[in-house]
Specification:
This protein has 171 residues and is an all-alpha fold. It is built from eight helices and no strands. The protein has helices spanning 18-34, 38-47, 50-66, 72-89, 94-99, 102-109, 111-121, 137-170. α7 (111-121) packs across α8.
Length: 171
């Protein structure tokens, strides 16, 4: 795909294209379907603990920091489903309990708004040098969180309530 002359100028942004990251979404679907089988569920529950998934993630991201190859993409897209499944299978683990903390749950609640607003404040073409910290990073995060909170409470929640009222009429 990136051999097409029109697309060659966009290679640094290839990770933002749906056609290059859709495998990660499909992999999560494969995990969900596979876990419906009792043997697969038992196998995963016995071996996939959050600490194992975190160790795997650390290994994958350490490798990506120092080396890139075509095979890295398969490992990279497997990290998130493994982290999610490991916490789902072990709800009493320290990682699952951490995800249930009020501040983390709040970030989860506003995550869609945060996802939308961060696009305005962070430029994917500006990549900081390894080990550097942009002076405006805290300002960007503050602005993204501020706008996300405002739009969540001012737009998203009222529309969710309205949607429930409309759905209630038909249910």
């Amino acid at each position: 795909v990136m051999q097409t002359p029109r697309l060659q100028g966009f290679t640094p942004l290839v990770y933002l294209r749906t056609d290059t990251v859709i495998a990660g979404i499909f992999l999560g679907c494969v995990f969900a379907v596979a876990l419906k089988r009792a043997k697969v569920m038992a196998f995963a529950r016995a071996r996939l603990y959050p600490w194992v998934a975190l160790l795997y993630a650390a290994g994958v991201f350490t490798r990506l920091t120092f080396h890139h190859s075509r095979s890295d993409h398969a490992f990279e897209i497997s990290v998130y489903p493994l982290l999610l499944v490991s916490t789902m299978l072990h709800p009493a683990s320290w990682a699952s309990r951490f995800l249930e903390l009020s501040p983390i749950r709040f970030v989860g609640r506003i995550s869609y708004s945060l996802y939308l607003w961060q696009e305005l404040f962070f430029n994917p073409r500006v990549v900081p040098a390894p080990g550097s910290f942009h002076s405006h990073t805290l300002l960007c995060w503050g602005a993204a969180f501020g706008c996300a909170i405002a739009s969540y409470y001012g737009i998203e929640r009222p529309l969710i309530r309205r949607g429930h009222r409309i759905a209630g009429r038909f249910g």
